[in-house]
Structures are given as C-alpha cells and as structure tokens.
Design goal:
It is a single chain. This protein is α/β, with parallel strands linked by helices. The chain has helices at residues 22-28, 66-70, 96-101, 179-187, 221-233, 255-264, 289-296, 311-324, 339-342; strands spanning 3-8, 12-16, 47-51, 54-56, 73-74, 79-81, 85-88, 106-117, 122-131, 142-146, 153-157, 167-173, 193-200, 211-217, 240-246, 268-274, 285-286, 303-309, 331-335. The protein folds into 3 domains: 3-101, Roll (Ubiquitin-like (UB roll)); 106-200, Beta Barrel (Elongation Factor Tu (Ef-tu), domain 3), CATH 2.40.30; 211-337, Rossmann fold (3-Layer(aba) Sandwich), CATH 3.40.50.80. The strands form 4 sheets. It has a 6-stranded antiparallel sheet with strand order 11-10-13-8-9-12. Strands 17-16-15-14-18-19 form a 6-stranded parallel sheet, sandwiched between helices. Strands 2-1-7-3-5 form a 5-stranded mixed sheet. Helix 5 packs parallel to helix 6 (255-264). The protein binds flavin-adenine dinucleotide.
Amino acid sequence: MTVQIEVQPFSHGFDCEENETILSAALRQGLLLRYGCKNGGCGTCKIKLIDGDIESDTRNSFTLTPDEVEDDWFLPCITQAMDDCVVDVSQMELTEEEFLSGDTSLEFETEVAVNEPMTPDIRRLRLRIKNPDGMEFTAGQFANIQIPGTDLLRPYSMANASRERNMLEFGIKVLPGGVFSDVLSKDLRVGDKLVVHGPYGDLRIRSSHRNIIMIAGGSGLAPLLSMLHHLADKGNIRPVQLFFGARTLDDLYYLEDIQSIQEEMPCLEFIPVLSESWPEDWAGATGMVTDVVKEMLPSLNNYDAYMCGPPPMIDAAIPILGELGVRPRNIYFDAFVPSASAA
Ligand SMILES: Cc1cc2nc3c(=O)[nH]c(=O)nc-3n(C[C@H](O)[C@H](O)[C@H](O)COP(=O)(O)OP(=O)(O)OC[C@H]3O[C@@H](n4cnc5c(N)ncnc54)[C@H](O)[C@@H]3O)c2cc1C
C-alpha cells in the first residue's frame, strides 16, 4: 500500500511505499531531509509527527528521550508510515530550496594512507581523498564508510582538523564480530580504495561565552579532537576541560596531539580517567568518568557540554550534567551506536 507524507512547513507531499522508511522515500523522490547514519543512531533526522500513524524502532533511548517519543518526535530513517501522515521538519532548519534540491552530500573515492593500531582495540585510519577534490566538513561531523564489496555503510567521526581538506582521519574501535571491524583489522592495506559518503551530522562547536566541558569515552575522543583542533585554529580563549574515560593506561591515545593542542591553546585542561586498572605511580583520576566530573566540577552553571562515546556513557552523563547546572539545550553529543545492533 502506498501512503502520502505531507511535509510542513512546505505543504509538499511525497509517496511512501510499504516497507520503505520515510527517509528513503523522501530521498528517492529527490527531496532532502537531513540525515546521518541511516540506522537510528545519530538523531540528525529527528522530526515531528503531526498526524497519522507510524511504526518506529525506538530502541535507541539516547537518540530520542522518552519525553520526545511521548511528544511525537521520531526518526524517519527507522520509521515506516502505516497511513497517510503529516510531519513537521522545522527542527531541521531547511530552506524550501534545500528541501526541494534533494540530497547534496557527496560520494568520495579515497585511498588508505594509514591503518595502524593506537591502542589494543582502537585503530587510526587515514584516508586520502582522491575524487572529488577534498571534503568540506565541520569539526564534529562524521562520514559513512562503505564496506568494500557491499552496500553497507558505517558511520565514523572525523578526528582530524577540518583544514586538512584532502585527508580524513578516524579513530575506530574494533568490535569483535563487527563487519567493518574485521575488514579494518584483517584486510585493509595502505593503497586500498574505500568509498566514503558525507559529511553528515550537526555536532559542532557552538559560539558562546560559556566554558566548555568535553567528555569522551573510548573511540569518542575522535570528534572532540577535531573540535579541539578547530578551537585552537580559531585562537579560542574559553576555558576547555576535556575528560577522557578509558579502562587502562594502554587505552589512552592521541596524547601527543592533545599535548600539542595544549601548547597552542593553554586554556585546555586534559583529565584522563582510568576505570579498570592503573599503575601504582598513576597520579591521575580513577573511577567512572562521570563521577570524576562531579567531584572536580560541582557546578557547571556556565558551561556548554560536548560528549561522544558509547551509549551507556552518554545516558549516564546527560542527567549528571543537568544536575550540575548545564542547560539541556547546551548539551551536544553523538552516541556511537554500533550499526548492526541499531538496525
Ligand atoms: C554518528 C556516529 C559516529 C560514530 N563515530 C565513531 C567513531 O568515530 N569511532 C568508532 O569507533 N565508532 C564510531 N561509531 C560507531 C560505529 O559506527 C560502529 O561501532 C560501527 O558501525 C561498527 O561497525 P562494524 O561493522 O565493525 O560492526 P557491526 O557489524 O555494525 O557490529 C557491531 C556490533 O554489534 C554486534 N552485532 C552484530 N549484529 C548484531 C545484532 N543483530 N544485534 C545486536 N548486536 C549485533 C557485533 O557483534 C558487534 O559487536 C559512530 C556511530 C555513530 C552513530
């Protein structure tokens, strides 16, 4: 059965087939809804249902809060229409021209420049962009890497400075049994070709006069590092505190990069937090990164917060940041949802 989706504020409609997501239907008909990971993990495509009936996979509690679900917000990338629907896309801040012009994200041919371990389970992947010439991305955004020989896409955040136009660097956690993880850790060699789509996502540094707290867990350091490069490039003087939660000393990485950013931007304080085990002479913080934030910064009244990492860390940190005084609208994050488990 084909149903009609009416899109407000543009009063424009499109068809949606049975078993087709609302996002796929819009893109197929040359209309743009902003999107990212296409599997419910990033929240970029969040829009509101005004009328009609939908069936949505809402397992990603960190992408949509229970209040948002209650309030009829949904993710068209993982939602099918059961009946004619009216949706409101105002939240996406699209002009009518952008909406009618369709998807303008690009496909890039790239070549592997570096594929090496940084920790026991995180690899540095650097891709040289061959065609078209360079990706214009904003620090904090991500790209979808196409798994060779398949149509499968995996989202990864850029870790490098956006000024490095012809290079994309990723810090990728190798997940046991993960499809791209296997390719990355076993097969991918320097010189191999990879197709990358992007850029996507709206995680980026917002201009404000407030201090900045950043919280990273595991491979979540990648986009925050790119954002730190951006702040240093802009001569930032807002105090920035970067908390990085890792299990052991061996799981810390990008330390030299952080140190060289600190030399350029002395207002950056780096607080690594080890949760599982640490050497006797470890003078740094230990425990859960969120507990250390609470101990060190009992009031975050004048802060913007940026976070990236595994969904449980984001889920734990959001209420704590709220209790400490960060306004919900000043909390920005990407939860690194594994694709296969989100689909
Ligand atoms: C916006 C965004 C940005 C991201 N950026 C980064 C980044 O910079 N670095 C990074 O490391 N990660 C990042 N991620 C997460 C990353 O995309 C996933 O970890 C990645 O998709 C894993 O791909 P894979 O093919 O290796 O594993 P997948 O094949 O997707 O499998 C992932 C895990 O799920 C398990 N699994 C497989 N099938 C199922 C199933 N049916 N049900 C439940 N579990 C299953 C697998 O065993 C494996 O452990 C990001 C995610 C998002 C949404």
